[in-house]
Design goal:
By secondary structure, the protein is of the alpha+beta class. The protein has one helix and five strands, in the order βββββα. Pfam families: DUF3284 (PF11687).
């Protein structure tokens, strides 16, 4: 399959916690936009990476994530984890982007 044919493509996998999940590519424009959705038994997580060329050697990366819990208990757990760990996730994401920058 070519990259432009992958939008709408879905497959089954196993996430980091060992749960089975369904992954669906919702939007794919090579070197511009990567959007996908991961659905487990408890939640649906939509992630999007959008790249915007600023100059010949600069790219702005926009990352968004939306989590929709399928029940109230999972929603409460997600809210608690968000309060406690969002700063850590943001910090680690910045480190990854810095490593990518150094690599290029």
């Amino acid at each position: 399959m070519a990259a432009d044919e992958l939008a709408g493509f879905a497959y089954s996998s196993v996430n980091d916690e060992g749960e089975s999940c369904q992954i669906q590519i919702t939007k794919l424009i090579s070197a511009v936009s990567y959007h996908f959705q991961v659905e487990t038994k408890d939640e649906i997580v939509s992630k999007a990476y959008d790249l915007k060329k600023m100059a010949a050697d600069q790219v702005e990366v926009s990352y968004t994530q939306k989590v929709k819990a399928k029940n109230l208990l999972v929603a409460l757990k997600n809210k608690t984890n968000s309060i406690l760990f969002d700063w850590l996730l943001a910090n680690n994401f910045k480190k990854i982007l810095k490593q990518l920058e150094i690599g290029y």
